[in-house]
Amino acid sequence: MQQHTTSYYAASRNQHVDYPELLDSVECDVCIIGAGYTGLSTALFLLEQGFTVTIVEAAKVGFGASGRNGGQIVNSYSRDIDVIERTVGARQASLLGAMAFEGGRIIRERVARYGIECDLKDGGVFAAFNDKQMKHLEAQKRLWERYGNDQLELLDSRRIRDVVATNRYVGGLLDMSGGHIHPLNLALGEAAAVVSLGGNIYEQSPAIRIDRGDRPVVHTPKGQVRSRFVVVAGNAYLGGLVPELASKSMPCGTQVIATEPLSEELAHRLLPQDYCVEDCNYLLDYYRLSGDRRLIYGGGVVYGARDPANIEKIIRPKMLKTFPQLAKVKIDFAWTGNFLLTLSRLPQVGRLGDNLYYSQGCSGHGVTYTHLAGKILAEALRGQAERFDAFASLPHYPFPGGRMMQVPFSALGAAYYQLRDRLGV
Ligand SMILES: Cc1cc2nc3c(=O)[nH]c(=O)nc-3n(C[C@H](O)[C@H](O)[C@H](O)COP(=O)(O)OP(=O)(O)OC[C@H]3O[C@@H](n4cnc5c(N)ncnc54)[C@H](O)[C@@H]3O)c2cc1C
User: Where do the coiled-coil regions begin and end (predicted)?
Assistant: First the structure.
């Protein structure tokens, strides 16, 4: 039986529910593969609109990235709207830009409507190491304001020290519509909401084959789901189930540590307003306080999603570079998780045939996008596909050299960006 990875989140989850394994043949309108945010958000929107829904999950609800991530509610996409403006036509870009802040609103609405306890806090900071990154943040503020975000504030070198106790940054951008959550408790709360609306969730039930056609059938080792539509939401953990999707995306690992609980005084000194922070490097560090005042610190990327041998050894030095004052603080938890990278770093969205839909590959920033994905997938299944098609129109390309070359290619790319980050160019 696959359990949640050993993490601070699993140790502090507020529900210990085992959903049953699928042992039967069931019928429904929509079968969803994967119980991360994409699958759960899609299920909730569909159930709210009267569809019958079954989710099959290979392991546990929130087993994947959704139950292990940094917990940062980051707006927009892993490449920003200006890149989208240059990639697709004006109409598509304005549709996608208008959706860039919707995911965060959906999370807050879900938390309020279903009473989900997940330590939700408002406020996220992008921190700049140099003037070039600061200029980028100024441009990002103008861009995001153009698309309706009026909750932004530039922080100069003095102001940023008021929100994070390190002298590494020259400034930053505060987004009060960003924020942070306990990611696994959000996923578990959403799963409980799915069940409360009559949805079915089966754990330990991997989809091992999809018979496509008018009435597709999703097979698990001991059961099957016959439905009108299938939504594939397995992201970095999907493997080769849908071969068409594999060459244009690559699973990557990123690592997180959690300290022991800090004293109230120390926690307040580090992050007085309790905002989350991510820096502006390509290979970025991200951190925040948990509900019980641990510092949750993430960073690093392992291309190809191999598990690194000693996570603490990789991440602790990064944490101490930012906060040398934590030298004596113990690390209680260290874990890794996989996100799905695309070459453009934009989400990979579309349909195969008339009734098999997918959304994946949000490349590192997916907490907000995956919640939006649920909404646009549900719209598309109801026949209103304009917003879905705006995402589906984003071009995607195979990683050069094909699957075998994905890892070396991206590792080269990472080395290049690491050098750029270090030189501040
Ligand atoms: C360590 C880490 C830190 C991150 N930090 C942040 C952050 O701070 N902010 C942010 O915005 N984003 C962050 N991300 C990215 C974000 O977590 C993801 O983009 C998002 O959670 C993806 O959700 P998902 O539902 O698409 O995929 P997942 O959450 O990975 O869910 C996919 C699910 O599908 C299941 N599955 C796969 N194959 C099958 C199958 N064949 N049959 C049945 N089930 C299957 C898996 O078991 C899994 O539960 C982070 C990611 C990681 C790994």
Answer: none
